[in-house]
Amino acid sequence: VIWPTRWSALALFLLLAPTIPGVANRTKAILTGRRGAPVWQLYADLWKLVRRGVVYSTTTTDVFRVAPVAILAATIVAAVLLPLDGQTSILHFSGDAVAFASLLALGRFALVLAALDTGSSFEGMGASREVAFASLVEPGLFVSLAALGVVAHDFSLSTMLGENDARAATAAVMPSLVMVAISLFALTLAECSRVPVDDPATHLELTMVHEVIVLDHSGPDLAAILYASALKLGLFAVIILNLLIPGGGPRGVAGLALLPGSFLVLGLAIGIVESVTARLRMSKVPLYIAGSSALALFGLILVLR
Amino acid sequence: MLALFALCATWTVSAPDWSFASLAAAAPALSPASGVAVLALALVGFGFKAGLVPLHFWLPPAHAAAPSHVSALMSGIVIKTGIYGMLRVLLLLGGAPAWWGWLVLSLGVVSGVLGVLWALAQHDVKRLLAYHSVENIGIILMGIGVGALGVAYHAPVVAVVGFSGGLLHTVNHALFKSLLFLGAGAVYRATGTRNMEELGGLARRMPWTWLGFVIGAAAIVGLPPLNGFVSEWLVYQGLFTSSRSSGVLRLALLGVPALALIGALALACFAKLAGVVFLGTPRSNAAAGAKDGGVGARIPALVVAAACLLLGVLPVLGISLVNAASRELAGASRLPFPDSVVAGGRAISLVALVTIALSTLFWLARRALLARRLTRHEETWACGYDAATSRMQYTASSFAAPLLGIFGGLGGVRVERTTTSLRTRSVDPVLDTVALPLWSRLRHSALRLRAIQQGRLHFYLLYVMAALLVLLGYLAFGSRL
Asked: In sequence order, which residues have a C-beta less than 8 Å from that of residue B363 and are 6 or more positions away?
């Protein structure tokens, strides 16, 4: 009986994830006194790109063409490991949290190699910044996952975020969980290239981090990359919201409704952050990431006690 | 070597001869002090051999100087004898006290983080790979440390998982590091340089070498669906399971963020290596004229690459390889291998296969989409300017600069700045700031001993006589002292 819910949750996830950047941008527009693009703007962009032809740099090799495919596949497999319906994931095993993080790393590796494949100095610079910031985010992410694992007595994402009796009585550890959630939100902003670490709206190559890596991609390739970025936001939305629900979310259709709910919350939060804060200076980013990771570390130490 | 002889000497005081069997029999009779000495000496002696920080400084120059197929053997097999030696001592002693486990785990963390950080600072392809051996020895030691802690705190499952992670990573590292050194050797043969700043664009010119190299790079970074991921997952599992026991052992969980940092830095480092050497445009004429080696050079690399893929897609193969040995080390030979590991191994197969299948599916879909579309080939975007040259590409040093800047003095880069030039040089903090100054000071004070060495034979005969007299005196009256 559970199987259909899990698969429909996956379908819903794949279908609705592109609304997150839409919600974020709309929120930002309204808060800064503009009307802004519709929430479903990304769907229109993706549809447009899929129907286009492509332009390839003469410098590039097959790496450039394989990377968009690899990042999309890796992100979707990562989604399969998450309990998207709030109960349990399609595929789960002890330590699947490591596989989840490694799949995201696989996508990053492919994208960075594609950027270096163009031989462009801009893309080399972007790739360098991307791996530098990601290297700092990774320990913070694992500290958060470790804290959730200690609470759940198991290191599978399904028990850490889904239905689990060990998590049912989490009143005592709620402060730690809130700390982990805040830390994960801050790290999401860094990992998914949003303000205050990166600005998706910037138009100057020198100030871009993530955007500049995909500068030479076009057509369906670019569509795959943009879609994968939206999915990645979705993954973190699911993690952050579910870790705060003790004992797992509601079953059935109500559980499915939680998914768009988490997207809406994350989109709103990102939009609010982007309209009230400016982007950090590049040299301050390590401090920001280290500070957010430290919060998760306090959470971990509190539950380890 | 000296440390190893001292180790044997301490041990054989209470054993009849030097065979492993009698050493094992003598192990319970060791006094606490000599037990500590044996373990410490094993760590120093075999640690030198394995190249763990701060005893690693001989390794990068040695491995970089050897011919590449020999470097492959040195990094793949020879330094592992250090690991083997440590495990052998552990087995003969029948486990180690907790302090040794904590020490090995922390040394593993230090070796891992500093090894990869110093690798990031290198411009020489083979020196970079050699520093990665230091990093991987760190990961192996983390596994062994967790295993030893599991034994010390009577948590057999933690011990088995930890040891199996360390052992499997030993096997995996032998595979992907050989693959990478073979690739580096092919590049050196084709271009005559190991300096990354003179390479570039080799993926087009040496497609077979590139294929092997990129598989090796993804494997060493620990990405699915390759073998490096499986053993790192096992080490993570060891750290995770430690948290489920009670007491101090739970603190081993703090190794998790360290391992995550090592993995992410390795990704940065191999993005730099693969990207600068193989992608973009050639930075020198030598790189522009490079060609793949013959079939004889391709086949070994491709066989090893296939092995990396096989152990990544079928982790159960690798796990069954280390199963018996890790249970023996954990002193739990009669216990079944933990189910969660076997089940995890099977699930990882599924993850790997689904990732490969989905990628293939998307690749075919992309081909079908683009089949009847306009595909144009233009120059890389450079803000509307054309005629970009290869000198405008990002260099290896610039690529690594932000990360090394974050880690400051630990990063091992020295900047030499004059009014008209800026040069960065990679240094080994241990070798260049500690070992070499220490050595030169030692040599300096040794010069004072020169006074007794004047090259006259009768003085030397006098020394021999004096030494004999002292020894005779000791024999005659020593017992009464």
From this structure: A66, A69
HSE-CB at A67 with a 13 A cutoff on CA atoms is: 26
Q: Give the H/E segment covering residue B377.
A: strand B375-378
Give bridge partners of residue A152 from the DSSP assignment. Answer: none
The two structure tokens encoding residue A168: 């049912």
CA dist B337 and B160 (Å) reads 8
At a CB cut-off of 8 Å and minimum separation 6, what does A265 contact? A237, A241
Any residues with CB less than 8 A from the CB of B13 and at least 6 apart, and which? B34
User: b/e map of B135-172 (b: 16 or more CB within 10 Å)?
Assistant: bbbbbbbbbbbbbbbbbbbebbbbbbbbbbbbbbbbbb
Supply the Cα-derived Rg of chain B in whole angstroms.
Answer: 26
- For A220, the closest chain B residue by CA position comes to B366
Out of A76, A92, A135, name the one closest to residue B403 (CB): A135
- Confidence band of B295 (pLDDT split at 50, 70, 90): confident
Closest to A83 measured CA to CA, from A74, A92, A71: A92
How far apart (Å, rounded) are the C-alpha atoms in residues B422 and B418? 6
DSSP string, B8-66: HHHHHTTSSSSSHHHHHHHGGGS-HHHHHHHHHHHHHHHHHHHT-TTS-TTHHHHHHHS
Contact state of A103 with B351 under an 8 Å Cβ cutoff: yes
Give the C-alpha separation, B127 to B125, whole Å: 6
User: Quick one: A271 exposed, middle or buried, by C-beta within 10 A (0-12, 13-18, 19+)?
Assistant: buried
- DSSP for A145-207 reads HHHHHHHHTS--HHHHHSS-HHHHS-TTTHHHHHHHHHHHHHHHHHHTT-TTT--TT---GGG
Q: Report the C-alpha gap between B196 and B395 in whole angstroms.
A: 8
Q: Is the pLDDT of residue B229 over 70?
A: yes
Q: What percentage of residues in chain B have a pLDDT greater than 70?
A: 97
String of DSSP letters for A239-282: HHHHHTSTT----HHHHHHHHHHHHHHHHHHHHHHHHH-PPPPG
| Residue the block writes with tokens 């700045």 | B417
| Nearest C-alpha in B relative to A284 | B406
**Mean pLDDT for the stretch of residues A13-41:** 94
Q: How far apart are CA B239 and CA B158, in angstroms?
A: 8
Q: Which residues of A touch B398 (CB under 8 A)?
A: 124-125, 128
Contacts of A48 in chain B (CB under 8 A): none
The residue assigned the tokens 């070994």 is B300
More confident residue, A58 or B416: A58
**Measured distance CA(B101)–CA(A248) in Å, rounded:** 37
The tokens describing B446, both together, are 């040794």
Q: Which site among B158, B313, B337, B355 would you substitute to test the A interface, given the most A Cβ atoms closer than 10 Å to its Cβ?
A: B355
